Amino acid sequence: MSVDKIVEELKKNISAFEKTVETKETGTVLEIGDGIARISGLTKCQSNEMLEFPGETFGVALNLEEETVGAVILGKYTHIKEGDSVKRTGRILSVPVGEEFIGRVVDALGKPVDDLGEIKTKEFYPIERIASGVMSREPVSEPVQTGIKAIDSMIPIGRGQRELIIGDRQTGKTAVAVDTIINQKGQDLICIYVAIGQKESKVARTVAKLKEHGAMDYTIVVKAGASEPSPLLYVAPYAGVSMAEYFMDKGKDVLIIYDDLTKQAWAYREMSLLLRRPPGREAYPGDVFYLHSRLLERACRLNKENGGGSITALPIIETQASDVTAYIPTNVISITDGQIYLESDLFYKGIRPALNVGLSVSRVGSAAQTKPMKKVTGKIRMVMAQFKEMEAFAQFASDLDEETKKQISLGQRLVEILKQPQYAPVPVANQVAIFYAVSNGFASEIEVKEIQAWETKLHEFFNKTKTSLLDKIGKGEWSDEIEKELKDACEEYTKQK
User: Fold this and answer.
1) Which residue stretches of 275-325 are H helix?
2) Are 80 and 53 in contact (CB under 8 A)?
3) How many helices (H) and strands (E) does the chain have?
4) The one catalytic residue among 91, 276, 363, 413
5) Is 363 tagged catalytic?
6) Count of CB atoms situated within 10 Å of the CB of 282
7) Which of 145, 372, 385, 479 is 20 to 30 A from 398, comparing alpha carbons?
8) What are phi and psi of 283, to 5 degrees?
9) At what angle do helices 480-496 and 428-439 cross, to 10 degrees?
């Protein structure tokens, strides 16, 4: 190349050169330990901003003090030491969102942990978003069918509702949540299961069960395992609801399960005490109520002008020795629209799901039921409550009048009908058929111990010979003709016996 050409190239490059000044705010680690870093020099840092530490490790600024910033490290922190440089990213903590996450298992930051390759998505949602305003919402009126007879009949859940699942450990709380996910097949509902502080083996078993029933086709699993640092346990539920909001903004319906928020509260308490926030009741910081309320308030049903999507939240809380009056249980009970209370004593008696009808409630009520279910199960809750009292009274009374005997007989049969094995959700039309048959006396001649076998055969009879009737009931249709058809079908089945 000639000298002239070289000079010409240099002139071109010089003329195209633009002088830009890039400023980066950096700070210095003053102290580090237990996943908490105290940093000086970040005077313009924002709350919840992501900070970059050495070794491509990120943290979140939580305490903005006069001289220092308190940050929690998201992941391993043993390589970070005093004097290390920390950079501001200018980005509020956010997670990737998109359709690509369906069928995948990811961590609290949206990174895949299922060995199925990278998830390519362009959109990010901040983990903290202000919940939709009152004027953009509408009342809950469409049901979320759990497939669990005791819940669909007495404590119905609607799309956009927040229903707490509460009980001691090992009472079947996760089982209720997993059965609800399995029952959403073909219901046009995206499910997100957030596992917080659980053993890896338990999460693996849950994912395997969801795959076995074809439920991973519409489910995202967000996992923050028991071995992971407390900041990830704190972030996981917010990451899950941000993913849910992406679908809600597209007008879709989402079901999100937080399993469980007790462990998130423990993680938050640990972080707060290390950040030297003052402890209050039961050593929790004063803002622990706000921790759960700003999470659960994001579950709602939007009106048509705002896309018409919904997020239904099923938070799980673990109690100690059935104490629902403890701090965290009372907090979450006051935030949600009702609770499903699972009782240890019932569980040990073999009543599964171990649902305490007296303490369980849905504040949405029959608004979240289809018309056939509403008509058929209207009296069941009252019958069950009366049965509990009469059963206790009957133990001490030798002579009972016919009406009382009839009530006790119906109650005994309903208790048997409400028993249900795990991973066996029952379609809503079949539930209507069985409740109609029992409450109208078609099972009064059947021995209590034979009820479950009788129920199985009744389902077989309806599934084989009454499919058009089940289709009508499943679509929410109800009229005098359908009721007569249902009655005739029950009589036909009884005559066969």
Assistant:
1) 288-296
2) yes
3) 16, 16
4) 363
5) yes
6) 11
7) 385
8) 65, 10
9) 70
